[in-house]
Specification:
With 213 residues, this protein is an alpha/beta fold. It folds into 2 domains: 70 residues, Heat Shock Protein 90, CATH 3.30.565.10; 115 residues, 3-Layer(aba) Sandwich (Rossmann fold). The chain is 30% helix and 19% strand. It contains 6 helices and 8 strands.
């Protein structure tokens, strides 16, 4: 049994065990200045359960912090698993695309850039809405992957501005967000996006999407 106790903000009683649900967390602004996507605890729960264990949390509400408890079974170590052979991923794509990534998180932005460049696409990046709109007008990408939680001007506003720009009207706009409910997808489409993808983006799904456009 492993216990982790903190003296942070704590968890509201009504949120309770739902903190382990995907994307469940305390309300935050779109720019997510406090960090997090509501993925971490969901991943903890999945990993612990894969090992036959359980995880729980106790908190007296906002203020006194929280305590998380992980319980894992004691097991006798088995032999080494049989090696499996897997064919290497083929980076080839059906067609080379011009792709713009608008993402304020440097690691996420660079990761996507490397992924798409390796797959054979021509890629440029921006870290905010202002430079993103400039790139939409000058680079004229076929597809733009736009983070919703941009600082200052968010991704929804950027999509609306893009649809008013003659140079960017034909660009396929894809919303990247940690929010994956149907209402989030509808909100993105209403703002002018053509598609909605939930972070972290599945590389195979993204490559298939680009190949099919």
């Amino acid at each position: 049994m492993l216990r982790v106790r903190d003296t942070g903000e704590g968890i509201r009683t009504e949120l309770g065990a739902r903190v382990f649900d995907l994307f469940a967390q305390e309300p935050q602004a779109l720019d997510r200045s406090r960090g997090g996507l509501g993925l971490g605890l969901a991943l903890v729960k999945q990993l612990v359960e894969l090992h036959g264990g359980s995880v729980s949390v106790t908190s007296r509400g906002p203020g006194p912090g929280s305590e998380f408890t992980v319980r894992l079974p004691a097991v006798v170590a088995g032999g080494e698993p049989e090696p499996t052979s897997a064919a290497p991923a083929d980076p080839a794509v059906h067609r080379r695309r011009r792709v713009l990534i608008v993402e304020d998180n440097a690691d996420a932005r660079e990761g996507l850039r490397l992924l798409l460049t390796y797959a054979g696409h021509e890629v440029e990046t921006s870290e905010d809405a202002s430079s993103g709109l400039d790139k939409l007008r000058t680079f004229r990408p076929e597809i733009a992957l736009i983070d919703i939680g941009l600082p200052g001007v968010d991704g929804y506003a950027l999509a609306r501005m893009a649809r008013q720009s003659p140079e960017a009207r034909a660009t396929c706009l894809v919303a990247l967000t940690g929010y994956g409910q149907e209402e989030d997808r509808q909100k993105a489409l209403a703002a002018g996006f053509d598609a909605h993808m939930t972070k972290p983006v599945d590389p195979s799904r993204l490559n298939a999407f680009l190949a099919d456009r």
